[in-house]
Design a protein that fits this description.
Number of domains: 2
Strand order of the largest sheet: 3-2-1-4-5-6-11
Oligomer: single chain
CATH topology of the largest domain: Rossmann fold
CATH architecture of the largest domain: 3-Layer(aba) Sandwich
Order of helices and strands: EHEEHEHEHEEHEEEHEEHEEHH
Strand content: 15-25%
Number of strands: 14
CATH superfamily of the largest domain: NAD(P)-binding Rossmann-like Domain
CATH class of the largest domain: Alpha Beta
């Protein structure tokens, strides 16, 4: 019988890739937790193969009682780059209260592991490369709530037998992403629209979604095989920094026309450098990113092109 894994956030960008990969591998049986109001466009066809619970209508403890859960993959989050006062309650519930209820049940029912999804925004973005030992200086309220839940994880690491791994992601991108820089640029190109960006000297650690999925799978293997109680924070990034203007150049070449131009002055303060030291992921998870920025952008561009309606 296949071991059952709970996946939260499966309707999101990264979660949809992870659900698809787990179903294709066939080793585990995924149990998907979503809200009844979630937009399921990324995973509609996949849900036919899964047991699905609406977490706004079903008590979490009931889900664990009805199923023998082996592990939890927690990707659900409420992200706001900038928040308003009306966002605070929902953000705290989504990023702290809900996952605390989830890990409480996971500990009570003696699950093997709990894999959490964090962000390198939790760290001081001005101390590069960013390491797991870097000072925690959350960039925004979103990152603060993620860091807050990390403190909750410390409690359960000390009081339960759960193996806990928190993957702190750099800047993920890929096809079917949310409304962020790279999909915006690609869609603009495919609509033959000119885009005028700032000078594009910001250098960030952009990591391809397929490499991120491999990191999750390595974390599952690591957590499953560990015979000691774990609580590990692991940064998932390429260890390299790529300038926005370099991304613009690559995409312009793929499109065959220079429609993205980096000429505007910066309107406000910028984070000009943010990249990770991924040596812990290499040593502990045996994980290395496989895609170069050129390969990842080429595949992403072509997927958007092929799937245009």
């Amino acid at each position: 019988m296949k071991k059952k894994l709970i996946i939260t956030g499966a309707s999101g960008f990264i979660g949809s890739y992870l659900l698809k990969s787990i179903l294709e591998d066939g080793e585990f049986e995924p149990i998907v937790l979503v809200k009844s109001t979630s937009d399921l466009f990324r995973i509609e066809k996949l849900l036919e193969k899964c047991k699905v619970y609406h977490v706004d209508k079903t008590d979490i403890e009931t889900i664990f009682t009805q199923n023998s859960i082996y592990g939890v993959l927690h990707l659900a989050t409420l992200y706001k780059k900038s928040h308003s006062s009306s966002d605070i309650e929902e953000m705290i519930y989504s990023n702290i209260t809900f996952p605390t209820k989830l890990i409480e049940s996971a500990a009570k029912h003696k699950c093997k592991f709990f894999i959490n999804t964090g962000t390198f925004f939790e760290y001081d973005l001005y101390s590069n490369p960013i390491r797991e030992s870097s000072k925690q200086t959350p960039y925004n309220l979103y990152a603060s709530t993620k860091a807050g839940f990390n403190s909750v994880l410390s409690y359960y690491a000390n009081t339960s037998a759960l193996n806990i791994v928190s993957l702190k992601l750099a800047a993920p991108f890929g096809y079917n992403d949310n409304h962020k820089l790279i999909p915006f640029l690609i869609n603009s190109l495919l609509e033959n629209k000119e885009v005028i960006l700032e000078k594009g000297e910001q250098e960030w650690d952009f990591v391809y979604v397929k490499d991120v999925i491999e990191a999750f799978k390595k974390a599952i293997l690591f957590s499953s095989n560990s015979q000691r109680s774990l609580h590990e924070d692991i940064l998932i990034g390429t260890g390299l920094k790529v300038a926005v203007k370099e991304i613009a150049d690559i995409l312009n070449k793929l499109h065959g026309e220079k429609l993205i131009k980096c000429t505007k002055e910066y309107p406000c303060s910028q984070i000009f450098e943010a990249y990770t030291d991924n040596s812990k992921a290499k040593n502990m998870l045996q994980w290395l990113p496989k895609y170069s920025i050129e390969e990842a952008l080429n595949e992403t561009y072509n997927l958007y092109k092929e799937n245009r309606k």
